[in-house]
Please model this.
Amino acid sequence: MKTIKTPIIPIKKTFANVKGKHELHLEAICVFSAIGFFLDTDTYWRDKIIISPGSESILDDDSYVVSSKKWFQWNYSPREISFETSLQEFTELFESIIESQTTGQKVVLPLSGGLDSRTQAVALRNHPHVNTYSYSFDGGYNESKIAKKIADTCQFPFQSFTIQRGYLWNVIEELASINECYSEFTHPRQMAFIDTYSEMGDVFSLGHMGDLMFDSFGLPQLSFEEEVQKVIKLLIKKGGFELATALWAAWGLEGSFEDYFKSRIRALLNEIKIENTNAKLRAFKTQFSVSRWSSNNLSVFEKVLPVTLPYYDTRMCEFICTIPEKYLSNRQLQIAYIKKNSPDLAKITWHGQKPFNLKNFHYNRAPYNIPYRVTDKIIREFNGFIGKPHISRNWELQFVGEGNDKHLKKWLFDSKLMELVPKEIIQRFYDNFKEKDAVTYSHPVSMLLTLALFQRKFNS
Model:
């Protein structure tokens, strides 16, 4: 017998066995196709699960689950404290976590134009060994310009990378081995430079989860059924419901995908004993989406160096449960922390509010932002006219263009995918992507590509 205690937000998957046939869990694969990650403890197989976050499980010698119970339950227990007190507590906790994770290490800090990595830069401003980098899309907005200003302000060494079109096809089989096909392949852009990171330091400091913890959905109090509908809307990707429904019918599964998925969401949401709608949805996304999607993509970083994540820390999770929702909305704590401790960083453009920064982003509305929006549109249209279309989405680098299309068709039509998915479905979604609506059908195509790699590497 052995006891497994999983973190509140696991970095790695912990597999276990359960009684049942060793066969594909087709219902779970339909959900995976719809939302981009496996739900709850589901895997590709009926007799294998992922041990739930924040739980303590006893496994026998063959790794079968004997018993399991939760040691942590997400809750909302706000204290009657001021914003200033919340900020002081966040400052002390965040910097303490960063210090404990990075002392004596050469830190690699990926920088973006957003707030999470900028907050980490503030906490690491006096660290003696920090290397930073950023990347931008070939033909996209040069976010590295913002990242470099952050690095220069903190006096951190900085490297800028450009993600080239079609990079995925040179690394796709390695990526499938790393993430085990438990998430699709367009988002782990760090794969484009995976051989570079090991020379930059000893440990990554990553800002995953900060944007979810320190913001609010801004919703009024909803009924339970309204919360269920909101979760479904948050999870389902464009084209995902259509693909899942098609697979459900092709595999002859009982009932309908819609009813199955809705019942799963209703049951999982009912387990979260939080009344406040915004806090409940945050807890749901953390427990299910972050642990099964965001964490799975951490495997790419871990392939090169150990990872540290201040927002994953148990103390941070417990802290968030005690902070009034009104202080978590609109990134208030992170913004106030940066403005107070590094005013120069606050003056640098915030990518999500460009061209404004942390001090004046409230002007990102008409008429103040009209000059920028008009100029930006003119530049994009001109670049498109001269054959340099603006790239803003991951799949545009990996699926668009003759070279990309050749590789994509090879994996979709000249592989073992058709042993799992009928050719008619593959052809329909590929044609819809190419001829009907690339934005809507990019996700289904990406999921079919993921299933093709799964068939080749794990179901042969």
In short: Strands lie at 2-5, 15-17, 48-50, 55-59, 65-70, 107-110, 130-137, 158-163, 203-205, 307-308. The chain has 19 helices and ten strands. The two ends are 32 Å apart (CA to CA). The longest strand covers residues 130-137.
